[in-house]
Amino acid sequence: MEEVVKATIENGFIFIPSNNVVEEFKLSKDDLVLTETSLATLMNNVTKPGNFNTVKRQHATQPLVVDQIKITPYKGTKSLLIRTVVRSDSGKKYDNQIMFKRVTFVDDIDQVENEGDIVEFTASDGETYYVEKIDMNKIDVAVRCNCASFRWDFARRNPKDKTLYGSTPAPYKPKTDRPPRNLNNVSGLCKHLMKTGAAIAESEMTTEFKI
Fold it and tell me: Which terminus in the chain has less CB density within 10 A, N or C?
């Protein structure tokens, strides 16, 4: 009887008990990395004690208003891009993008046993789509905001776990000599992206954040 070889997952890596695993399966080290970073994980990074030397900017979402929400489906890649315009109390507007990955699209709503798990929405192309409710505590995301806080605190940290939507910008040049806020160089969200996530959750298209 052949011995059953079991793989284990530790710290985000797959370990297979074989000296020649890379050669046998033609895998690179990058292929063995599991990327599972949800919107809730990014928020937890920001709210976790010790990661930041300030909490005011990251948590001040109450005065913000989401003016626009645009949803673009990519059925071929099982992705859903949600773009918003978030307005501050001063009237300044910021563009936000959240790309949800591994979204389950439903083609025939009549074949669904529990319609309570399905969300109907009208996309940017004017068509109606159905998807399974997005679990913001599990599903992978990539995010972006054009505010200075996101660029300064996260734009060059998020790529390390593939949670930056779009290309990595040039290093941000601070205008003051104040120390960095992101003490542990964690990936995360600015307050505008937090507000966008909350607005999406309120639409019942997704689950709520679990902090």
Answer: N
